[in-house]
Amino acid sequence: MMKPLGLIQPQSDRPVRWPLFLGRSTIAATTLTGLFTYGCGQTATTPGQAKAPAIAVTQIVEHPSLNAVRDGLKAELIQAGYQPDQTLKWQWESAQGNPSLAAQIAKKFAGDNPNVVVAISTPSAQAVAAAAPKLPLVFSTVTDPLGAKLVSNLQKPGGLITGVSDLTPVDKHLQLITQITPKVKRIGVLYNAGESNSVSLVKLLKAAAANQKLEVVEATVANTSEVANAAKSLIGRTDAIYIPTDNTAVSALESVIQVGVQNKLPVYAGDNDSVERGAIASLGFDYYDVGRQTGKLVVRVLRGEKPGEIAVETPTKLNLTINAKSAQQMGVTVPEKVLSQAAKVIK
Questions:
Q1: How many C-beta atoms lie closer than 10 Å to residue 1's C-beta?
Q2: Residue 142 has pLDDT above 50, yes or no
Q3: CA distances (Å), 201 to each of 159, 212, 225, 267, in order?
Q4: Is the pLDDT of residue 110 over 50?
Q5: Residues 6+ apart with CB under 8 A from 180
Q6: What is the dihedral of CA 258, 263, 266, 267, to 10 degrees?
Q7: Which of 10, 28, 89, 105 has the least CB density, counted as fewest CB within 10 Å?
Q8: What residues does 55 pair with on adjacent strands?
């Protein structure tokens, strides 16, 4: 059963990890006024208006990268003058990895009629687009907005949808893997085949691997409980494991790391937060910054711009993060040339 939605009280404009219980209190219904009106009946709002605008945020699951997006979003709104529980009504819900729950959350949001819905991850964005098509939607961390059928044009999305894509450079990830572990020829990729975000990434991965004369071995899962066994299934069939920005696999990353350490099987990732948790290396975005970038789009919508007239954005800055401790545990020596290029080395 879906848990109740709620307001979150802000504590500061610094990056914070918001405890779950803070997002579970009862939300008050909102009536919104403003100077500009969308076709769907939403109103443009600015901080300080008598009645606070409302933001409804949904994410498919909680893990460090998606949580960082949520925190960055909140910080950007606060910096723009939208103070939660004062000049902004904020509600946030996690679907806990369950697409059915994501759909229930989206339906609840449709009834609440907030000014803007923010959907973090592809499954959550697709759920909102289906259940609440008349609400302005700003998505974040959607790898392939075209493939997910959220928009038909990245520069001119049209309708009520825009957002930030987090398409990761899988070709550069493969280059990084072979720089650190030159003997790798077979790369196991573990992902949820039911998540369109991941299907798009694996398709790109296969194309990049073919260009680099590498073999991709797939291991698919339907939920987090299957991740450990899927990782074990790659033992002996691959020379390394690659975890893309797949929400199911990332949510259960520690079980993959354990397989890597116990079997001296290098584990690489598509995001830097997973390196903090034990993957050897990644060349990735700062997901807190992705959240800030998403927040800037939300502010533009709150101030009267139509989402469909705002181009979909992509973060451009990449940082190399290396976990030297994990590398050692997995029997890998990271070359000094690679270490010298890292923005962060975890020892």
A1: 5
A2: yes
A3: 26, 16, 22, 17
A4: yes
A5: 266, 280, 281, 327, 332, 334, 335, 338
A6: -30
A7: 28
A8: 90, 116
